[in-house]
Amino acid sequence: EVQLQASGGGLVQTGGTLTLSCAASTSTFDAYTIAWFRQVPGKEREGAACIRLGDHRTYYTDPVKGRFAMSSDSAKATVYLQMNSLKPDDTAVYYCAAAESRSLPMPRLLFKIPRVTRLFPSWGQGTLVTVSS
Description:
Strand content: over 45%
Radius of gyration: 14 Å
Structural class: mainly beta
Helix content: under 10%
Largest sheet: 7 strands, mixed
Shape: globular
Number of strands: 11
C-alpha cells in the first residue's frame, strides 16, 4: 500500500483560499487515483474531488465544483487541492486516499458508488479545515 501524508489545513475566513497537499510514497505515482474526502462529526465521510494521475482526469462533487481544483506534481509524488471561495460548510477534516486506478471506475462515476471509501486501501491522517463566518 502507498503511504499518504496530508497537510495544509488551518483556519481561514469565509471567501478565503487554502491549499491542501497529499504526498504519496510510491514509485508508481501515475498508476493511482487520489481522492479527497471530508468528514464532519456525526456525518459520513463524503467525497469532494479526485484525480486519476495517469491522464490527470479530475472530478468534483457538486458542493465543491467550481471552487476547488486538484493538481499534481509527479516529480514530488504529491497532489494538491486548492480550495477557493471557502464557506463555513466546508469546515471538516479532509482526508486524501489512494487506490490503483485500474481498480476503480472512471472519475465521474467514482463518488456515485455507495460506500466508495471501501475502494481506497490507503489513507492519509486527515487535516482540519475550519472556515470562520
